[in-house]
Design a protein that fits this description.
- This protein has 189 residues and is mainly alpha-helical.
- It has 2 domains: 39 residues; 144 residues, no CATH class.
- The strands form 2 sheets. Strands 3-5-4 form a 3-stranded antiparallel beta sheet.
- Strand 1 and strand 2 form a beta hairpin.
- It starts with a helix and ends in a 5-residue tail after the last helix.
C-alpha cells in the first residue's frame, strides 16, 4: 500500500499534465501564433465559404481544371480517413499496369512528352494537394483549349500560384491544385 499510493498519484498527475494541460497549452499557443494553420489551413472562397484545405488534395477530372496527382485512397477520393500508400512496389505488375494506363490517359488527353511521375503516382499519404509548376504547365494547352483562354493567361496564373521553397532552400516549388482551380473559376482573389 505504501508504494501503491504514490504510483496512483503520479498516474493521475501525469494524466492531467500530458492529457489536459499540455495539449490545451500547445493548442492555445498555436492558435495565437499560427491561427490559419491551427484551423486546418482552410481555403475560403470570395464569399467566405470553405472550399477545402491547403493540406488535402481534391479530385478534379473535368478537362477545364488542372488535374492533381492521383490519390492512393481506396476510392481515389482523397478521403483523409483512408490515408496511406498503396504499398505496391516498382516491380508489382498491377502497379506497373496502373502507371502505364495513367500515362496513356494523359497522352490521350493532350499532355505530350515525358510525364512527371507525380501525375501518375500517388504520394505516400495519397492526399498530396500539390503538383510541381512543370506538371501544371504541361496541362496548360488542354485547360486553355477547354476554357477558351490564352495559354499565356494560364501560365501567368501558374507563376502567381507557385509556392516558393521555404526559406529559399527547403522543399521544392509547388502549386496547390485546389487553389489554382478555384482561382481560375473566379472563386478566389
Amino acid at each position: 500500500m505504501k508504494d501503491l499510493k504514490p504510483a496512483i498519484l503520479m498516474l493521475v498527475l501525469f494524466t492531467l499534465i500530458c492529457g489536459g494541460v499540455y495539449p490545451m497549452l500547445v493548442t492555445g499557443i498555436s492558435t495565437v501564433i499560427f491561427p490559419k494553420e491551427a484551423a486546418g489551413s482552410l481555403i475560403l472562397d470570395n464569399v467566405g465559404k470553405v472550399r477545402g484545405s491547403m493540406l488535402i488534395g481534391q479530385s478534379f477530372s473535368d478537362e477545364k481544371y488542372f488535374w492533381p496527382r492521383p490519390s492512393a485512397t481506396p476510392d481515389f477520393s482523397y478521403n483523409a480517413a483512408s490515408s496511406g500508400a498503396s504499398n505496391k512496389g516498382p516491380t508489382n505488375k498491377e502497379y506497373l499496369k496502373d502507371v502505364a494506363d495513367k500515362v496513356a490517359f494523359l497522352h490521350n488527353n493532350g499532355i505530350s512528352g515525358t510525364i512527371p511521375s507525380e501525375l501518375v503516382q500517388a504520394s505516400g499519404s495519397g492526399l498530396d494537394p500539390d503538383i510541381s509548376p512543370e506538371s501544371a504547365r504541361l496541362q496548360v494547352p488542354r485547360v486553355a483549349k477547354t476554357r477558351g483562354v490564352s495559354e499565356n493567361i494560364l501560365l501567368d496564373k501558374i507563376t502567381k500560384a507557385t509556392i516558393k521553397r521555404q526559406f529559399g532552400f527547403l522543399g521544392a516549388e509547388r502549386v496547390n491544385v485546389l487553389a489554382l482551380n478555384l482561382w481560375l473559376d473566379g472563386a478566389l482573389k
